[in-house]
Structure formats: structure tokens, C-alpha cells
Amino acid sequence: MTRDATAEALSRQSIAAANLLAELRTDDAELAHDMIEGETSLFEALAAAIDEIDQCEIIADGCKAKVEEIGKRRHRADARASRIRALIEQAMAMADLSSVRLPLATLSLKATPPKVVVNDESLIPSEFWAPQSPVLDKKALNDAAKLREIPGVGKTNGGVSLQIRRA
Fold first, then answer.
1. pLDDT, tens only, 37-88
2. Which of 42, 69, 89, 153 is most enclosed, with most CB atoms within 10 A?
3. By the 8 A CB rule, do 131 and 20 touch?
4. What's the CA gap between 156 and 26, in Å, rounded?
């Protein structure tokens, strides 16, 4: 079933089940379940939706794996380019060449200024530290809000969440 067909089937069958329950007017959950199963295709639509979720998760996992693979390949290519660059620098330095003109590029060795190396952060004066904005710890806030009222914090009415357990 396509994505749109799955959504359409779920919508159509859930309306049919709701109409059936409205006509049935019973508090017997087992009877309602059996009537929905026998008179509508809601359970088949639900099964098709679960199948589509499985397919989406497979695609997402495959994409994640491909992204990781490409990331590793990129890092290997970057590392190889750095090694080759270092070899070129070494070869030019050993040959005492400051510049080489080639058909594809002109290579030049240039002096670079010294870089800062931090040995002990605790000894660095405060003028070199950038202030950071405080970050809200949402987990701690949520835990505390369960126990007491906190100014500036409200709560939702909650909701419903679908749990899918695999057999």
C-alpha cells in the first residue's frame, strides 16, 4: 500500500469503526472488538500501517548506515590528503624548493605563525574566557515539576502515545 493509500484506508476504516460503535451502543469491549474485526477492515488497515512503519524504519536505518559509511570514507580521504600534503612539504623542504610550477598547480612553502597550545586551562586569566548563556536542564525541571509547583512552568494535559510491541 502506498503512503496515501495507507492514510486513506486508516481514515476510512476508523470512521467505519466509530460509526459501528455508535450504532452498537455497548460497554462490552470484547463484543466491540469482535464487531469491528468482523464488520470493518480496520485491523487490516492497522496491519498495513505497521508494515509501512517497518519499511520506513528499514529505509531510515539504511540511510543512517550509508551516512556513517560515507562519513568514514570522507575522513579517510581527508587523512590521505593530509598525509600526501605532508609528503609534498617534506619533499620540497628536502630539495630546498620554496616554489614549484606544475601544469596543474603552483606549489609554495610558506612560513606559518606559531599557534597557541593550551597546557593548563586553570591558569588562563578570565579575560580570555567567553561567557556562556545558561542552559535549561529540562530533565531536572521535568523531574522537579512532578513533585512541586515551579514558577514559570506549566503542564500539559498529557496525551496518548502509540506503543508497538513486536511479537
1. 999 999 999 999 999 999 999 999 999 999 999 999 999 999 999 999 999 9
2. 42
3. no
4. 31
